Amino acid sequence: MTRKLRFNSSTIHGGQEEEKGYGAVMPPIYQTSTYAQKSPGNHKGYEYSRTHNPTRSALERSISALENGKYGLAFASGLAAMDAIIKMFDPSDEIISVNDLYGGSFRLFTQIFKKYGLKIHFVNMQDLASVEAHITKKTKLIWVETPTNPMMNVVDIKAISAIAKTHNIVVAVDNTFASPYLQQPLELGATIVMHSATKYLAGHSDTILGLVALNDALLYEKLAFIQNSSGAVPGPMDSFLTLRGIKTLHIRMQRHSENGSAIAKFLKENIKVEKVYWPGFPDHPNYDIAKSQMKSFGGMISFLPKRGDRAKAFKIIENLKIFTLAESLGGVESLAGHPASMTHASIPKEIREKSGVVDGLIRLSVGIEDEQDLIEDLDQAISLI
């Protein structure tokens, strides 16, 4: 299909090719490790499934279409995708990262790559002058996460990309919280967009997978080489499940966003809630940026109970009946988590608390259930404190 599709159609048809075997509507699950060759090097485009697999290729074409990129790559997880991006750089190179980011990303920077000679600067990206001040001749990458996990800060992708362009620096954006439905970083000037596709893209809490999309041919070749050489690739079943999930992404994200808005407003009006972190409120410090670069504000919310501490947070999340206490996010079911002891446990207390991840903070991934059932569930749990 050569005509450019609108987003809702692209989730279903974007990057897909006619299946030549039996006309299957869904890309088949090519559950094979290797492929027959007529003679050495004479094959049908596939030799070994670490390098290429037809099911994975269909997924890679899909993410490139959704993000309006030229190239897509699939990895075994979101962190594996991030790992591959960072591996493009050399010892003594410098990276500027958003300072309030996912705990696993922080751990990868500080406990894995720092010991190989990469210098990481964690910067408040609401302050563009601070970003510029940290740029040196050795700066090769600016790592953006927006909205941030779990504080829901929004980074101005267009402004960061403009700064990076003047210094010939790669900008990579972790777009997991927004998904391509809400935000398309390549369109805003980013070089690379990365997803933990485990979350909204797959959408059903049944697979672990990472995706990358980009336009730069040279960077694509570098990443594809790392993908094959390091071997952190997803299997065909995980690729298939993610492809299947993507086909309903637009419908799910609409409901996630609608429910997220209803729950954020309920929490803000609740007398036992001190603070709600959600970029859809006009008094959110990054509301104007969020409104300009996001289609809507999504279903991720964090909140702090009044005089909230660990005990109060635990009491609320332990007494939820519809929200499930669990790691992860972005599935059809609503989840609740305690960032300080779960997703951000690898970040030292004094560092995480500076960014707002205090012991009383609760993070919600609002699912697609009936919004009134979710509100009533939160209401009964919060009423216990």
Structure commentary:
- With about 375 residues, the protein is α/β, with parallel strands linked by helices.
- It folds into two domains: about 5-245, Type I PLP-dependent aspartate aminotransferase-like (Major domain) (Aspartate Aminotransferase, domain 2), CATH 3.40.640.10; about 250-380, Aspartate Aminotransferase, domain 1 (Alpha-Beta Complex).
- The chain has helices at about 5-15, 55-65, 80-85, 105-115, 130-135, 155-165, 180, 215-230, 235-245, 250-270, 285-295, 310-320, 350-355, 370-380; strands spanning about 70-75, 95-100, 120-125, 140-145, 170-175, 190-195, 210-215, 275, 300-305, 325, 335, 360-365.
- The strands form two sheets. It has a seven-stranded mixed beta sheet with strand order 1-7-6-5-4-2-3, with helices on both faces. Strands 8-9-12-11-10 form a five-stranded mixed beta sheet, with helices on one face.
- Helix 4 links the parallel strand 2 (about 95-100) and strand 3.
- Helix 2 packs parallel to helix 9 and helix 3 (about 80-85) packs parallel to helix 4.
- The radius of gyration is 21 Å and the shape is globular.
- The N and C termini lie far apart (about 55 Å).
- The relative contact order is 0.13.
- The model has no long low-confidence stretch (mean pLDDT about 95).
Task: Write out key terms for the chains shown.
36% helix; 385 residues; alpha/beta; globular; seven-stranded mixed sheet; Aspartate Aminotransferase, domain 1; five-stranded mixed sheet; 15% strand; single chain
Spatial separation of the terminal alpha carbons: 56 Å
| Helix and strand sequence | HHEHEHEHEHEHEEHHHEHEHEEHEH
CATH topology of the largest domain: Aspartate Aminotransferase, domain 2
At the fourth level of CATH, the homologous superfamily of the largest domain is Type I PLP-dependent aspartate aminotransferase-like (Major domain)
Low-pLDDT segments: none
Query: Which bin fits the share of residues in helices?
Result: 25-40%
Largest sheet: 7 strands, mixed
Cα shape: globular
